[in-house]
Amino acid sequence: MELTPMIDKSSFEPIYLQIYNYIQEEIIAGRIEADSKLPSIRRLAQYLNISRTPVALAYDQLLAEGYIKSKPRSGYFAENVESIARSNYNLKQNKVSPTGNYSPIHHFYHSYQNDAIKYDFGYGTIDLHHFPLAKWRKFMNRSLLPENSFHLLYGDIQGEIGLRKEIASYLHQNRGVRCSPDQIVIGAGTFHSLDLLFQLIQNRTTSIAVESSVHVGVKALLNKFPFQVEPLDLELDGINLNKLKKKEVQAIYLTPSYQFPYGMTLSINKRIKLLKYATENQFYIIENDYDGEFRYNNRPIPSLQSLDNNGRVIYLGTFSKSLTPSFRISYLVLPTDLLCLFHLGKHSYDQHASPIFQKTLQWFMESGDFERHMRKMRTLYQKKHAIITSRFSDIFEDKIEIVGAGAGLHIVIKVKNDMDELKLIDTAKQFGVNVYPTSIYKIENHQEQDNILLLGFGGLSETAIEEGLRLLKIAWFPNNP
Ligand SMILES: Cc1ncc(COP(=O)(O)O)c(C=O)c1O
């Protein structure tokens, strides 16, 4: 079959969109019959005298929306429009997705109602006493003035352009990220953004490599999408790249600045090697830089995205640590090919981050208040980090090893007594202290129990940290006061 869409190179409508629209209309109108074979990407590109990229993008989107199907070694075929309608209906019926290994023992959930807990080393918390309430209120009030009431309506699906501009400039200055505001897509939290990203790449992704331990939110998403998951071992300087070389993957997910949960940093050598493999093998690197702003003992490490010259890195960030988790604002920085896919399908995604909060955040950033807040919080968290690490060494000496520290809002410790993870958590609880497991983050469920724990320090005062550690000493080493 030959296809002859009218390609207008002078049009504002991108070429891939013109091809996509044409084929979609032809299928719906029945002029391309169900099960008929479409020309290959190479052939159509040659025939239209254009590069393969726009044709591939158009086919990708048609595949994603179910207008065409791909048969291994045979090519692309038109779907039956009635079955498209039926499958859309089925999808709607089947909305609740399995959550897989999602564990209810989740460090995010602060034990608000539990009076018996005096000190909670919960990880999802931030320092509430230093939140700039008055400044935030000023901008929030502005967003509710009558002249701004249009922010009560739906916002731009990609996110408010003013906020995207602020984020692009902030990322450039603080994380070395090179991007234009057009590449940014605002979401309602890291896992909402990751979900959107997985939707974008799912048709071109069979296998995805991931760190051998990842956040439970990432685990839940890996279960939801039909990816083959390839866990990579973690070493002191980040993922084991030798294993990656042996695997054929289309994407890799990682937290290079401060591995979650264990806290190692991907070394510069490994960063360069990883970018090289990604370029040679054309896979994406999904960089979750969830707390890359906070680094205490040395200079902030530039993001992987800042070293990438070939559009392989997809950068993912959040305001949950730098400001507060409650506003639910995260962002994706997409390379241009994925941006095209996003625009093609954007009406089937949804903008979940409230336009009012986005606008307020934009003004907060424009005023310089965000930068000032970050400077203050860096100093504050640095102090808390110094206290928790030094007090652990003083109080516990060699009975505890600090496995991960130096950045972010949590540390990871290995307790050297005969208790396993659950026992350590339970015993601490009996003494009024909450500490958290790390085994729930493992991709592969090992039978053996660890004695490695995660302790957040962002939400605790310096005195509370000190007191909490004293109680832990009594709980875990009762014979060594
Ligand atoms: C690895 C990782 N990514 C992202 C986040 C933040 O998620 P969100 O943006 O949904 O608050 C966290 C936790 O705070 C995390 O541990």
TrEMBL record:
It holds the Pfam family GntR. One of its GO terms (molecular function) is transaminase activity. Keywords: Aminotransferase, DNA-binding, Pyridoxal phosphate, Transcription, Transcription regulation, Transferase. It comes from the Bacteria. Its cofactor is pyridoxal 5'-phosphate. Residues 13-81 form the HTH gntR-type domain. Signal peptide: none annotated. In the C-terminal section; belongs to the class-I pyridoxal-phosphate-dependent aminotransferase family. This is GntR family transcriptional regulator/MocR family aminotransferase. It comes from Metabacillus niabensis.
